[in-house]
Amino acid sequence: MMDMVSNVRPESLERIKNKEQADAFVAKQIEITKAQVKDGKVLLALSGGVDSSVVAALLVKAIGKQLICVHVNNGLMRKGESEQVVEVFRNQLDANLVYVDATDRFFNLLAGVADPEKKRKIIGNEFIEIFAEEANKVDGIGYLAQGTIYPDIVESVGVKSHHNVGGLPEDLQFELVEPIKFLYKDEVRVVGKALGLPEEMVMRQPFPGPGLGVRCVGAITRDRLEAVRESDAILREEFANYGLDTKVWQYFTVVPDFRSTGVTDGKRTYDWPVVLRAVNSVDATCATIEEIPYELLHKITDRILKEVKNVNRVLYDLSPKPGGTIEWE
Ligand code: XMP
Predict the structure, then answer these.
(1) Contact status, residue 143 vs residue 175, Cβ threshold 8 Å
(2) What digits encode the pLDDT tens for the residues 83-139?
(3) Stretch 244-264: mean pLDDT, rounded?
(4) Rounded to the nearest whole angstrom, what is the distance from the C-alpha of residue 163 to the centroid of ligand 1?
(5) What's the pLDDT at 161?
(6) Is the separation of the CB atoms in 32 and 8 below 8 Å?
(7) Best of 52, 125, 163 to mutate for ligand 1, by most ligand atoms within 8 A of CB?
(8) Atom 12 of ligand 1, nearest CA residue
(9) How far is the CA of 96 from the centre of ligand 1 (A)?
């Protein structure tokens, strides 16, 4: 049996590149998970990101309703993301899914908070608080599943650990179930596809834990966040139409906390700009700018100005990293 206790990837684990290897990996992990948890209950925080989604799909196969997924909608998700989690896991896979709409709680705590690190702390801590509350409502949890992947273990000062806020409180210190902890990201995607997860979920670009919260620069307001969400949806749609969605490493929009004058239908406006950002990178430590064709920039600009409320300018951020970080805060 594969050594799941050690934190070193077993030499016997071949790089997973195709469906056949992925199916074999899944079968093995089902066996290991069943042996580990027996008839115990397993809790999983399901954000809808690639890693937690793949763990959820794998564990549903292994232990069905013994898995309890908790999806916390913090109000900072991309357009349609929470809905997709419910659709895929509750409706299609028949998973045990607790859906918590905590938008108001997050917004109330974040009101007036402009400092980026304070925002991150609030978002991270409130998530843990809500997750713990939900865990306490379920009797007899024995295990906590996590979407840890191999780079998380290897790069102890990597992107995730650098940004992660705090640890789990004592009442959530269960034995861990980490079925993909020896996989690299590309392998996680192959396994996700083999498990039948939607392409869109499996091929997803990196998305920060604090979500759109760090792209609504300064103190978050509902209407400015809505401008981030709607413009991001337009950018993603147009990138997909143009075939750039699978080519560009990370792309999104940012709405800074300042306004400028504009004019629409002969009327003067005083509204926010939307900043477009599209970068290529290998591991997020450095990034270069994607040279978006002008025709696409024009199309995205026209759509944002027409369809997104309270916006009167669209700008393109040409700063590489170093220079600017990838996110704006
Ligand atoms: P920066 O902005 O530091 O981002 O160049 C590097 C990568 O990390 C992502 N990022 C985060 N990920 N929590 C996360 O889980 C965070 O607070 C966070 N901030 C940035 C960013 O999207 C990029 O991929």
Answers:
(1) yes
(2) 999 999 999 999 999 999 999 999 999 999 999 999 999 999 999 999 999 999 999
(3) 97
(4) 7
(5) 41
(6) no
(7) 163
(8) 208
(9) 30
Domain boundaries, the chain: 19-202, 215-316
The yes/no answer on whether domain 215-316 falls in CATH 3.30.300.10 is yes
pTM of the model: 0.93
Of ligand 1's listed atoms, the one at least distance from the Cα of 160 is: 15
pLDDT tens digits, residue range 150-185? 999 987 544 444 444 456 777 778 999 999 999 999
Distance of CA 132 to the CA centre of its chain: 20
- Say if CB 255 and CB 272 are below 8 A apart: yes
The alpha carbon of 159 and the centre of ligand 1 are apart by a number of angstroms equal to 7
Q: Give the model's confidence band at 4: pLDDT under 50 very low, under 70 low, under 90 confident, else very high.
A: low
What residues pair up with 263 in beta bridges, in sequence order?
268
Ligand 1 neighbours, Cβ below 6 Å, are 120, 159-160, 163, 206, 208-210, 214, 250, 284, 321, 325-327
- pLDDT tens readout for residues 276-311: 999 999 999 999 999 999 999 999 999 999 999 999
DSSP symbol at 313: E
| DSSP symbol at 86 | I
Strand partners, 156: none
Query: How many angstroms is it from 164 CA to the middle of ligand 1?
Result: 10
DSSP string, 262-305: EEETTEEEEEEEEEEEEEE-SSSSSBEE----HHHHHHHHHHHH
Task: Report domain 19-202's class.
Answer: alpha beta
Point out the least confidently predicted range of 4-13, 38-47, 74-83, 315-324.
4-13
